[in-house]
Amino acid sequence: MATLKIDNAKFVLTMDPERRIIRDGSVLVDGQRITQVGKATEMAGVTADRTIDASEMVVTPGFCNAHLHISYAHDIRGIFPDTLGGGEYIQTAYKLKSVMSEEEEYHTTFLAITELLKYGTTCFLDPGSTIHIDACMKAYGDSGVRANLGRQIAVKPNPVSLPVTPVDEAITQMEDTIRTYDHHFDGRIRAWAIPYSVDLATPELLKAGKEMADRYQTGLSYHVNNTPASIESHKQEFGKWPLEYLEDLGVLGPNVLLPHLIGAEDPDIDAMARTDTKGVMIPTASIKGGSGTTVKGKLPEMLAKGVCLGLGTDAGNNSNLVETLRTMYLKTVLYKDGRMDTKAMSAEKALEMATIDGARALGLADDIGSLEAGKKADIVLFDTKRPEWRSLFNPVINLVFSADGRSVHTVIVDGQVRVDAGVPVFVDEWDLIQNVQVLGQYSMDRTGISYPQKWPIV
Ligand SMILES: [Zn+2]
């Protein structure tokens, strides 16, 4: 198997249990996995098939995006006015998506992955929102990204025009998806049980998803509803908070991942903590959608109670932003400001959420999320010979508050270099961009959906 040495990095942020930051460090990769991490001087005699000179670079684990609707957006990104409400947005987005052919979905997914990888995100979870899974699988295979997928399932009539599937059939579809796709591409693909949401599921469907996640040792994820109306109806009907009700159903647990969680209150958070249920925070979507993160977000309380949280970005045309670095930045500064307390959230915690905690949330912490011997080699190298990185004394502070994806130099997934000196090696990037631009116009033409812009384009 081919060996790769990342040599003499200015700092290696290992994210290992001691959170060691190695100054003048090196990392050795053999095939899929990391075999050695240490001081460059100690590893000076180690040779490899390829050596990357990482002097003046900061090395981190690849980032995890634990909630990203991968194929929603890149062809029609930016068409929605920023004043549009969530209800109209989602219905229109689904209408646009419904005309997408298999080939179109491949290209739009491939561009989304290109953006992820180019800016350091090596692993993501699509919450079951792709239509043609095989086309998306081809994009996952061609790009070399690490992905968690599922099939979005609804068993109740819904405003987003998802097909309504009888419960029995829905359960079979969920299991078929896991059996068909789990562990593909040398283990880079994990397949999950993903009912769309609690609102569009039945208790039977959610329980079947949890049972499957346990039996196949994979995950279960679904959207939850913590709006005031949902809280009220849960109290009326069950005498419980929404997540207490889910705990009673037996559909919370260490392999369950709940996105958004805006509106979750202490009893919900306690239910997550008791069951080791994972959460994913999605600041880019929630603040642009006016969801009230800064008013009612409970990140510090969740962390204080030991709930494991990853980061996500939702869809590329409601958040419009799928980059992990800016997500880390937002998650940190929003809570400092909202609570008027600099201690409310730290850069270190943001980086944990993007790496080791994100990997735990995805059930992948044995393999990724840190740079340690034995783990799979998902690694990002940042070029710090750039103004935004200097001066450089504390690499965590610079990474979270000053840097962004533009300084990503090299990205390695599963031991393979996927971005080399800033260039994705698996795609003709400009060719793909032009292709997807054409597809976006085509989608709007076919559906008749477009929004007038506020200012005249002359
Ligand atoms: Zn979502």
Total domains, how many? 2
Mean pLDDT metric: 96
> What separation lies between the terminal Cα atoms?
57 Å
| Helix content range | 25-40%
Shape: globular
Question: How many whole angstroms does the radius of gyration measure?
Answer: 21 Å
* Number of helices, counting only DSSP H or I runs of 4 residues or more: 17
The biggest sheet, with number of strands, parallel, antiparallel or mixed sense and barrel status, is: 9 strands, mixed
Give the CATH H-level superfamily of the largest domain: Metal-dependent hydrolases
Q: Would you identify the CATH architecture of the largest domain?
A: Alpha-Beta Barrel
- Bound ligand species: zinc ion
Work out the strand percent: 15-25%
For the secondary structure, the number of strands is 19
What's the oligomerization state? single chain
Can you identify the CATH class of the largest domain?
Alpha Beta
Class per helix and strand makeup? alpha/beta
CATH topology call of the largest domain: TIM Barrel
Query: Spans with pLDDT under 50 lasting ≥5 residues?
Result: none
Write the layout of secondary structure elements.
Layout: E1 3-13, E2 21-30, E3 33-39, E4 50-53, E5 57-61, E6 63-65, E7 68-69, H1 86-98, H2 102-118, E8 121-125, H3 133-143, E9 146-149, H4 167-181, H5 184-187, E10 189-191, H6 203-215, E11 220-221, H7 228-238, H8 242-249, E12 256-259, H9 266-275, E13 278-281, H10 283-288, H11 293-296, H12 299-304, E14 309-311, E15 314-315, H13 324-338, H14 347-354, H15 356-361, E16 379-383, H16 395-402, E17 408-413, E18 416-420, E19 423-424, H17 429-447
Parallel strand pairs: 1-4, 1-5, 6-8, 7-15, 8-9, 9-10, 11-12, 12-13, 13-14
Antiparallel strand pairs: 1-2, 2-3, 5-16, 16-17, 17-18, 18-19
Helix pairs in contact: 2-3, 2-17, 4-6, 8-9, 13-14, 14-16
